[in-house]
Amino acid sequence: MLLWAIQQPIFSKHNAFVSQSSLQLKIDACGRSLSILQSPSSLATPGVTGSVMWDSGIILGKFLEHSVESGSIFLQGKKVVELGSGCGLVGCIAALLGAQVILTDLPDRLKLLKKNVETNLYGDVRGSAMVSELTWGDGLDADFTDPLPDFVLGSDVVYSEGAVMDLMETLIELCGKQTTVILAGELRNDAILEYFLDAATKEFIVGRVDQEQWHPDYHSSRVAIYVLVKK
């Protein structure tokens, strides 16, 4: 409950940077105007949230851009795995910043994800991107673990208590001592967040990124960014 008391998310505007009723979301990043296709009708399917953008994805993507520009994060040539990529904005921005990115999601989410990668990563791109199926808790192919990624990214991946242990299993398998995990999430359910943090602190050192380090134009008290490194 402490984070809710500090950030008071209910007093911040919901969906400040997205429009989930739109078929397309446009955002400027990395010197480009990115066009992210959405599928609002899929929200009617229980458990499907990756068909549209959420504020946490926008904030994480712009956080990466700002961090690279300020020199606090270096992504050129780094291996990045994005979990629960959804519409793919974060992974696309990481690729534009020079990373070798694997964007992942469940099998039924990959069509929209691939379309957004193809639409936005054209011409001269500093890094690269590939889309791959990944179900949390399943064993990982060598593409993910050989070598282990330098960064693991995720936005809104902590959304249900039932998925937390599968997520943790995948994070543990994906991460080495040199891997940095950066997760952004909207503060919806404090009990689920606490459940995840309790599990994460058994294996990882967990820190929260102060909003002063975020992109100056992309702030929300409804969102938190965490950094995890293996103990």
Brief rundown of the structure:
The protein is of the alpha/beta class. The protein has helices at residues 2-7, 55-70, 89-96, 110-120, 142-145, 161-174, 190-200, and strands at 24-29, 32-37, 79-83, 100-105, 128-133, 151-155, 180-186, 204-208, 223-230. The strands form 2 sheets. It has a 7-stranded mixed β-sheet, with helices on both faces.
Keyphrases for this structure?
single chain; 231 residues; Rossmann fold; 9 strands; globular
Q: Would you mind describing this structure in some detail?
A:
The chain is of the alpha/beta class and 231 residues long. It has one domain (2-230): Vaccinia Virus protein VP39 (Rossmann fold, 3-Layer(aba) Sandwich), CATH 3.40.50.150. The protein has helices at residues 2-7, 55-70, 89-96, 110-120, 142-145, 161-174, 190-200; strands spanning 24-29, 32-37, 79-83, 100-105, 128-133, 151-155, 180-186, 204-208, 223-230. α2 runs parallel beside α3 and α6 (161-174) runs parallel beside α7. The chain is globular and about 40 Å long. The mean pLDDT is 91.
Q: Helices and strands in order, then pairings?
A:
Layout: H1 2-7, E1 24-29, E2 32-37, H2 55-70, E3 79-83, H3 89-96, E4 100-105, H4 110-120, E5 128-133, H5 142-145, E6 151-155, H6 161-174, E7 180-186, H7 190-200, E8 204-208, E9 223-230
Parallel strand pairs: 3-4, 3-6, 4-5, 6-7
Antiparallel strand pairs: 1-2, 7-9, 8-9
Helix pairs in contact: 2-3, 6-7
